[in-house]
Amino acid sequence: MNVQRLREILARANKKRLLVVGDLMLDEFVWGKVGRISPEAPVPVVEVTGDSLYPGGAANVARNLREFIDDVAVIGLIGSDREGRQLRGLLADQKIDTADVIEDAGFRTIVKTRIIARNQQIVRVDREQVRSPSPEQVSSIAENVRRRLAQIDAIIFEDYGKGFLSAELIGKICTEAIAAGKIVSGDPNPRHPIDWKNMTAVTPNRTEAFLAAGIPWSDPIEPADKDEALLRTGQTLLDRWDTKLVLITLGEQGMMLFQKRNQPHYIPTKARQVFDVSGAGDTAIALFTLGLCCEATPGEAAEIANHGSAVVVGKLGTATVTHEELLASFQNDGLV
């Protein structure tokens, strides 16, 4: 796909409306430098120079979409705490709709804190409460999605395994959305097995894919399109989930697209530098789904997702890719 075709696809993006449903979290980055080892234990002492807050999890998927479209909404669970207010404020600053986000006084907003020194992550501290919505909340969520359904083009389920997404909730939403002709995609989590049947697309990473397929792990083979275990895994998931598309993200190897009645399509990585993989999967599902909404072929949508992911791993922090950066990635690859 060349840049002109990419421009045609992205020209349709701004009129699209997408809804992201899943685990919301706040990503905190503490930046510093290391000058010595602690006298108390053999660990580095990080002298803090600054900190940053970003929307994380499903909120980061919405943030990636917001770079390309005006109408993005999220549904998830936050607490009535300082972190919940900070997350809602960050989303509001980016004009992401949080009207249907559930605020629960009995829930602690999920926070991931990463300590970074000299462009290296020293440690990550997770403050989380794994909890599913109550039956009343599930009914409310499903009703809120039903109310939005006529106005949206696609739904993305982002599962970080924190309990918000359940088979019941996904089933209630997905059945009606597919019947209404909407694109529905899911990003699964290996610790939270869900039957992703009848989706338009599912985008596991390699580890998640092998676990979901029940196929023993094997080390990646170069090139990836000769990796028999990977090829068997993708086909198994395509059949098991009865989904139209399975896009397996492969980290430094790129991506592999599986679709019914077609040969697997391998897309090598475009990453030139890898500083931080935080949120790369969020970018992948956001751009893949958006591409499908904009009438890209599955292969073209996967190429867009691959280029977008390559850009964000070259940045520190929970990053997004802009319209201009995506075009530049294609141009730098000689796809003019």
Give a description of the structure.
By secondary structure, the chain is of the alpha/beta class. It has one domain: UDP-N-acetylmuramoyl-L-alanine:D-glutamate ligase (3-Layer(aba) Sandwich), CATH 3.40.1190. The protein is about 35% helix and about 25% strand. It has 10 helices and 14 strands. The chain has helices spanning about 5-10, 60-65, 80-95, 135-150, 165-180, 205-215, 230-240, 280-295, 300-310, 325-330; strands at about 15-20, 25-35, 45-55, 70-75, 75-80, 100-105, 110-115, 120-125, 155-160, 185, 200, 245-250, 255-260, 265-270. The strands form 3 sheets. The protein has an 8-stranded mixed sheet with strand order 4-1-9-10-11-12-13-14, with helices on both faces. A hairpin with a 5-residue loop joins strand 13 and strand 14. Helix 9 (about 300-310) crosses helix 10 (about 325-330).
In terms of topology, how is this protein built?
Blueprint lengths: L2 H9 L5 E6 L1 E14 L6 E14 H9 L4 E5 L1 E3 L2 H12 L8 E3 L5 E8 L2 E8 L7 H14 L5 E5 L8 H13 L3 E5 L13 E2 L3 H8 L14 H14 L3 E5 L4 E6 L5 E4 L11 H14 L4 H15 L10 H10 L4
Parallel strand pairs: 1-4, 1-9, 2-7, 5-6, 9-10, 10-11, 11-12
Antiparallel strand pairs: 2-3, 7-8, 12-13, 13-14
Structural key phrases:
336 residues, alpha/beta, UDP-N-acetylmuramoyl-L-alanine:D-glutamate ligase, 4-stranded mixed sheet, 26% strand
